[in-house]
Amino acid sequence: LDEQSRDLTMFQTPLGMFCLTVLLMGYTNSVQILHNDLVFILCNKILDVTNPYTDNVLVIGPCSRYETADRTEETLPKNEGIQKFVYKHLMDVNWILQRVKAVGGTFSGKKIMLCNKSAIFVRHKLTYLGREAEESQIQKVRDWLPYKSVTEVQGFLGTVGVLHVFIRNYAKLAQPLN
User: Fold this and answer.
1) Burial (CB count <10 Å: 0-12, 13-18, 19+), residue 61
2) Among residues 43, 119, 125, 176, which is most buried (max CB within 10 A)?
3) If you write DSSP's letter for every residue of 149-166 in order, what string do you get?
4) Residues 51 and 99 in one domain
5) Which residue range forms the structural domain that includes residue 164?
6) CA pair distance 131, 166, nearest whole angstrom
7) pTM here?
């Protein structure tokens, strides 16, 4: 274990305080365990509001901005300064925060991003209109030099594989390279 992480593993014994210096057997699956725990904790809202990925919890905004006939967004009847879709999204964010808090979980204040028009999540750009390919991933494919070895082909397939959801018949196209 990294020296900075060792204090996090402190435990008391009759012989005094100790900390781990290596990762315990079985802890290598801790990421999967955390993911399964998050899925269980948030199961009521999965697919509608969130879909946790390892230790990342993305809160999906409403699928409508509640646009009115005059192309403005609908507001709350009791407070016209708050747009309805923003309110609904913040209610979902609050539900997730409270649910995780209720079971003793925490979120990193440094990493949290609230109310963004777009976000990069698992190398995809997510916007109100849906999922888009991240430009840096597309540029990597554009800049790829002709490959000269099997290892370079595998590297290319790994890079372009991130974009497979945007490429029609990707499996058929990639098959000759496998």
Assistant:
1) buried
2) 125
3) SHHHHHHHHHHHHTTGGG
4) yes
5) 117-178
6) 9
7) 0.68
Which of 25-34, 39-48, 95-104, 122-131 is predicted with the least confidence, judged by mean pLDDT? Answer: 25-34
Residue 6 identity (one-letter amino acid): R
The C-alpha atoms of residue 76 and residue 83 are separated, in whole angstroms, by 6
Helix (H) or strand (E) holding 136: helix 135-142
Domain count, the chain: 2
The CB density around residue 126, as the number of other CB atoms within 10 Å, is 19
Q: Is 21 a member of any domain? A: no
96 touches 72 (CB < 8 A): no
Give the pLDDT confidence of 6-55 residue by residue, as tens digits: 888 888 888 889 988 887 777 777 788 888 999 999 999 998 899 888 88
Share of the chain above pLDDT 70, in %: 99
The whole-angstrom separation of Cα 15 and Cα 12 is 8
